[in-house]
């Protein structure tokens, strides 16, 4: 019998980009085999999709209840061991909770839930289930992001004194100016997306990235959000000031109306000795900035990089790696945890990261609604 981890998938059928990303990532290190799931709310659509991508249809289920009930009937060694949740936001919490309560390991898309309260409930559920839970803050899987993290943690740039993170997209610009389109987009529907669009979607990526690379926790935030139209209740742009301590501060800027931008995620961390800069659209370059020195460019695959960075590098120097590789590194880390192998704690984001992300989203909305005031992030 195959020693690969048996993976089930919820959502991600049809032409879903996130579905392709997760399927490719799971196959990257030959650690998983997709055994079934619920790709679509319509059973026949799920079956058709499974046939299209070459998965046996005997473990394609009509819904999550059926999946759990039928998998429980199988011998333990044949059951799905981990389930990836790729559905719209409002389904993340109920699905994740039900899976944890039934002993499954979980890989969940972000935002992990639609409320901070739900995140706290999941945290308690996970403690009881003692399984593995990963949240796919995808960009933490890039080798040069991991190199940035290790350099900061080892003190190579000195004490961090300034953080500047920008995540700009323009995809919602053609939608927001059309009243009919903005009324029929699930990202702008609080019942499906939660209380935030931009901060909840990409702002939470930026927030997690800041804490991931610096090892510091944000203590307080002040948010100023933009909605553009009075009938749109969901933020589509925002600037958030950050306080880590009295003398360490930063700014997080996220926008989905940055006209013409594609996926401009830029992370800049400045320490007392040096600065580091990374850009998602050019992910193989990590820029090292030092007073009185020419800018240095670090690239993946070289022996000067950290073990954590090299562990996530699949190709020789000079061969570009991208978002599929980044997600693949997260799946690889989860596989190690499920198999009880040694792994670095930075190899995949955990439920704690998802929980802090939800706290950040709610506090950003609260700060804005109270008139752009400082509010504390739970520690």
Q: Please, how many helices?
A: 13
- Quick check: average pLDDT? 96
Strand order of the largest sheet: 13-12-11-10-6-9-8-7-14
Report strand %.
Answer: 15-25%
Classified in CATH, the superfamily of the largest domain is: Dihydrodipicolinate Reductase, domain 2
Q: Give a short account of the largest sheet.
A: 9 strands, mixed
Using the CA coordinates, give the radius of gyration. Answer: 21 Å
Report on the architecture of this protein.
By secondary structure, this protein is an alpha/beta fold. The chain has two domains: 5-138, NAD(P)-binding Rossmann-like Domain (Rossmann fold); 143-317 and 351-369, Dihydrodipicolinate Reductase, domain 2, CATH 3.30.360.10. It contains 13 helices and 14 strands. The protein has helices at residues 17-27, 43-53, 64-72, 92-101, 116-129, 143-153, 173-176, 179-183, 190-193, 198-214, 307-311, 323-338, 351-369, and strands at 5-11, 32-38, 82-86, 105-108, 133-135, 160-168, 220-226, 237-243, 249-255, 264-271, 275-279, 286-289, 296-298, 375-376. It has a nine-stranded mixed beta sheet with strand order 13-12-11-10-6-9-8-7-14. A five-stranded parallel beta sheet has the order 2-1-3-4-5, with helices on both faces. The longest helix has 19 residues, at 351-369. The model has no long low-confidence stretch (mean pLDDT 96).
């Amino acid at each position: 019998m195959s020693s690969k981890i048996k993976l089930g998938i919820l959502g991600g059928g049809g032409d879903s980009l996130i579905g392709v990303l997760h399927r490719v990532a799971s196959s990257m290190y030959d650690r998983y085999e997709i055994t079934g799931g619920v790709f679509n709310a319509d059973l026949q659509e799920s079956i058709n999709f499974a046939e299209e991508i070459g998965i046996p249809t005997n473990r394609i289920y009509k819904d999550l209840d059926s999946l759990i009930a039928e998998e429980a009937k199988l011998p333990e060694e044949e059951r799905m061991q981990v389930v990836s949740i790729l559905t719209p936001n409002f389904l993340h919490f109920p699905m994740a909770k039900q899976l944890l309560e039934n002993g499954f390991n979980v890989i969940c898309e972000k935002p992990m839930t639609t409320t901070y309260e739900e995140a706290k409930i999941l945290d308690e559920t996970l403690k009881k289930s003692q399984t593995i839970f990963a949240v796919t803050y995808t960009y933490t899987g890039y080798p040069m992001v991991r190199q940035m993290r290790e350099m900061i943690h080892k003190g190579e740039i000195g004490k961090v004194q300034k953080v500047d993170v920008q995540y700009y997209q323009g995809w919602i610009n053609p939608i927001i100016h059309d009243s009919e389109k903005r009324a029929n987009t699930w990202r702008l529907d609080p019942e499906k997306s939660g209380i935030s669009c931009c901060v909840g979607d990409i702002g939470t990526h930026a927030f997690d990235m800041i804490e991931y690379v610096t090892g510091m926790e944000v203590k307080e935030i002040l948010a100023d959000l933009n909605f553009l139209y009075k009938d749109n209740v969901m933020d589509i742009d925002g600037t958030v000031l950050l306080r880590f301590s009295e003398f360490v501060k930063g700014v997080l800027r996220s926008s989905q109306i940055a006209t013409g931008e594609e996926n401009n995620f830029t992370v800049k961390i400045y320490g007392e000795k040096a600065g580091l800069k990374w850009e998602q659209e050019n992910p193989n370059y990590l820029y090292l900035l030092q007073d009185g020195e020419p800018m240095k460019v670090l690239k993946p695959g070289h022996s000067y990089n950290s073990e954590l960075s090299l562990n996530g590098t699949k190709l020789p120097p000079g061969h570009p790696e991208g978002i599929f590789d980044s997600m693949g590194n997260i799946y690889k880390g989860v596989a190690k945890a499920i198999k009880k192998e040694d792994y670095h704690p930075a190899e995949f984001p955990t439920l704690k990261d998802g929980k802090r992300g939800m706290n950040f989203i709610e506090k950003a909305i609260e700060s804005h609604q109270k008139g752009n005031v400082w509010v504390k992030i739970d520690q």
